[in-house]
Amino acid sequence: MPQRLTLADALRHAREALAGGEAVVSVAVLSSSTEDGPVAGERMSVWANRHEGTLGDLNLDEAALRIARAALAESDRPATHDVEAGGRRCTVYVEPHRAPPELVIVGAGHVARPLCRTGAMLGFRVTVLDDRPEFATRERFPEADEVRPARFDDPFRDVRIGRGTYLVLVTRGHKYDFEALRDVLHRPELPAYVGMIGSRRRTRAALEQLARDGVPDERLRRVHAPIGLHLGGETPEEIALAIAAEIVMVRRGGTGQPLRDRERVAERWVRSGG
């Protein structure tokens, strides 16, 4: 039988995940529906490939592991579940813990400011990079978790760019966007999202140059450029909204299609005669 997990250890596992470690799901018994069921407060910590703790019954543990790993893959929200195995039943509280997604904004200009605010509101941990000290300031980006000076010939020095990163390139010059894009596309691990601002002509020129530099087509197709959904926006705030909407679409697996067109409620209502 696995060893029981203390509350202190369960909290430590959750804190480590929130600080950037491996995502973990906490499972705790709320109540038992059978006399020989687990005691309220029994708990487990569940990672993708291991777990600690027990609910006091190996069959219940296996059932709880399936629920926890499904939550790890599909959800960020806590929930309660009824678990049953071998004639024993209990209700468990299941809560995933993972570090917030990272939004890295390269460039601290007019679009970056509303994008930083929106990203923070959406739950991202926001980092802003710029090579101009007067722009890369806490006063301009109070919602950012980090504001860093950067050199655009080495933009990501001391900045972690991984597969959970959402990267936005909105510098003051296309040359700097291109250099940052080339840097990230030559890394072994691509971000979850990489978008670059620019016109259709400049985007095409950049992608053609990267192809000549040997960047594979499948990597070039991962680049969202020109960046953002087509909302018809013109102001920095509207452009930031279009970028944020595309990031949410990629993160959550959306289509960007208007729900009116997707669900066709009005059309069906009219056809049915109201």
What is the number of independent domains?
2
Strand content: 15-25%
Number of E-type strands: 11
Specify the overall morphology: globular
CATH superfamily assignment of the largest domain? NAD(P)-binding Rossmann-like Domain
Q: Which fold name fills CATH's third level, the topology of the largest domain?
A: Rossmann fold
Q: Major beta sheet, specifics?
A: 6 strands, parallel
Write the element-wise H/E pattern from the N-terminal end onward.
HEEEHEEEHEEEHEHHEHHH
Query: What integer is the average pLDDT?
Result: 90
Strand arrangement within the widest β-sheet reads 8-7-6-9-10-11
Global structural class? alpha/beta
In CATH's first tier, which class of the largest domain applies?
Alpha Beta
User: What is the helix fraction of residues, given as a range?
Assistant: 25-40%
**Distinct helical segment count:** 9
